[in-house]
Backbone:
């Protein structure tokens, strides 16, 4: 509670035990939520240095540049940080679908009360 | 890679070692990113059952209903899940500011290249 991260004017990411912060990626022009990933200090630095989104893959334990194989890179427009500095928002210009399934957004299914999932049209993302 | 979570029509959250998924909260009417939190199975169940957003506080190790003290509850409009089912999107109708600082969104600061943070007007959120 005494932490000053919410009033700080310096970027002091609060990395978790694995050295990561949550990264939320939205389309800068539409505001649509595209994907969620994780960043370590290196991913943040490379994203800032190159203007292309880099993340840390927890499953592969490796730094990756989004689009390095698919070509669907994300060009950084603006980075924001949340109040307690354990999450960042990347507002980007996507070169193509952000999801590995070929969809614009990774959030393409609605959760129903009974636990079923309903697939949404790409246009439904907002 | 052989995991079928991205094509499944059933909600099968992929909880991390701590039993949590990432929860992204947006304003259902504007699409603005409001906050990021975590949910365990109980938080998901109570959110679905009550229509009010519940989360798991990692710092307090406790379930909490957003707004239980501030009154700024979040009424669920729709829940979505991402491709690998380790993150959910809550599209909500907020009763007031989502951030504990009194701001509409927790993402009220822009990260500059030199590591400084610039405070944004509430209207700048998108």
Residues:
């Amino acid at each position: 509670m005494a932490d000053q991260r919410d009033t700080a004017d310096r970027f002091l990411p609060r990395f978790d035990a694995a050295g990561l912060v949550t990264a939320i990626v939205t389309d800068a022009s539409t505001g649509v939520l595209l994907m969620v990933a994780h960043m370590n200090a290196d991913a943040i630095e490379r994203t800032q240095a190159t203007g292309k989104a880099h993340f840390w893959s927890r499953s592969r334990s490796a730094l990756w540049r989004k689009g390095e194989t698919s070509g669907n890179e994300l060009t950084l427009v603006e980075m924001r940080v949340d109040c307690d500095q354990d999450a960042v928002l990347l507002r980007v210009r996507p070169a193509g679908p952000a999801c590995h399934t070929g969809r614009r957004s990774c959030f393409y299914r609605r959760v129903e009360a009974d636990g079923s999932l309903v697939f949404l049209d790409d246009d439904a993302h907002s």
